[in-house]
Write a structure and sequence with these properties.
It is a single chain. The chain is built from 3 helices and 3 strands; from the N terminus they run αβββαα. By secondary structure, the protein is an alpha+beta fold. Strands 1-2-3 form a 3-stranded antiparallel sheet. The chain starts with a helix and ends with a helix.
Amino acid sequence: MNYQDELYNLAREIDAAVATVTQTARGAEHAPLEWRLPGELGTVTVSGAGELTAVTLDITEMHQYSADALSRTVLQGIRDAEQRADQRRGDTIATAVTETGLA
């Protein structure tokens, strides 16, 4: 095999690996993440990209919170869910990069 063929084959392998990582990243962006709020208060759901998609609260648990405490708890839950989604997406992409040999 000549030098040009070797380069061509290497470029094809790299393209295939990049396509795999890209597909993995897209999948990670669409995988929802559900984050439980403390005290059985409810859940916050974000997309894999960290975009808020739902907040579900248990009305029977809400009476234990003042309006201020409830808003701070929900806001912190949203932040935690967004951060966890970002971390999960990054970990998923890093694993794909390693598995494809791009690292």
